[in-house]
Fold:
Amino acid sequence: MLLKGILEDCGVTINRYEPVPGGDINHCYCLYAHNAKYFLKVNDAKRYSRMFEKEANGLQALSNGLPTLERMTTLIVPEVIKCGIEKQQQYLLSHKVDARHNPSRLLPPYLQFFNLSPH
Structure:
């Protein structure tokens, strides 16, 4: 199973997972571990070559480019755990960011593409 190989590659153990609907390019999943939640995106590595590598670089640039105080008050940039390829499928595994804890700060639609959530 693809998911099992990805989790082994990342060194992550989960209790359960749920598909996250809505994507046309990626298959997305919310992964639940004992004390953590993860967000996994998977797609065809040949068709969308290096897509998640570029996304991971962009998330890292956002994280590094915002001063600490600004990061704490504006955006939570998900921490990328790993991106890689398993059985011709590329993946991006990050910590799951949950905006439900502060529903008064809605995420602008253009940031939803990057899996970013307001703090």
